[in-house]
Structures are given as C-alpha cells and as structure tokens.
Amino acid sequence: MTDPAVPPQAGGAVPPSFPPPNAGAQGFPPPPGVQFPGAPEVKPKKKFLAKALGILGTLAVIAIVVVIKIGIGSAFAEDATKDAKAGDCIGSKSELAETASEIKAEIVDCSSSAAKYTVLDRVEGVKDVNSPACDAILKEKLKDGEKGNIIASAEGEGYLLCVKTN
C-alpha cells in the first residue's frame, strides 16, 4: 500500500482523486454541479409560486369560515317580532331611544312585567325607523300623555311596529 502523503514514484500507483477520471461514464454518476451538453436544464424550485398559493389557500379557508359563520348566525338569529300585530306587547331589555338604535325586542304576554310596549299598528315594506309611516298612526291612536315610538326590522322587505310605551 502506498502512503498518500508521499508522491508516487515513476511507474508506481496513482492515488485516487475526486472526481474519479471516469466520472459520468456508464455506471458512474456525474460529479455534482456538472451538466452535460444536451441535457435538460434543472430549474430551481419556484418558492414564490408555492408561497403565493399557500397564502391564497389560507385566505380562501378564512373566507369560507366567515361565510359559514355568518350563514349559521343568521339562520339562528330569528326576528323575534316578525309576527307582532296590533294589540301584542313587546318586551326589551333596553329602552327605545329618541334616536335610532339597535335593540333586542320580543313578543311577550301583556300581563308580564317585561311588557314595555304595546303595538298600535304594523307598517309593512318599510325598513327606515326615521320614516314618517307611523306618524299618523301615533297621532291618531295615542291619548294625551302617552308616549309612542317605532321599532323597525330590516328582515325581508322590512316592517315598522308603531308602539306606545306601557
């Protein structure tokens, strides 16, 4: 065996080198980074495309979750006053304000302490609480000293409930 630190003598064995002289020949893989003429180019992976698709996929999942949450929420958030008619009583945890505000109202038994308002009339097809649609009704049906108000719903075509305070 020859010592690799000692140069070979004339006619002696040649120490192995890298890459071997026959690298790339049949049966031997080519050395790293060497490309032969006519061979297809190896393109680097497109990290940008993969990253963009990942972001778009994430956004799509978020959008689907939001749509499902809104859809399920609106399916369970039923309009509690949709069947209210003249003579029904309405209960609410909050008072109706002088200006438009959102409240949670529901039909309650008129003998209940929760009955804060009595429906005087219902106006269909109007969603705007500031509409004058209840003005004539309130003027006609309220007695001196009684206070009237309006509850609006935007469900479907919308409606107004012209109510008096109990």
From TrEMBL:
Q: Which organism is it from?
A: Actinoplanes sandaracinus
The protein's UniProt keywords, in alphabetical order, are:
Membrane, Transmembrane, Transmembrane helix
TM helices/strands, residue ranges = 52-72
Does the keyword section mention Membrane?
yes
Q: Where is the composition biased (Pro residues)?
A: 16-34
In Swiss-Prot or TrEMBL terms, this protein is called Uncharacterized protein
Question: Region labeled Disordered — which residues?
Answer: 1-39
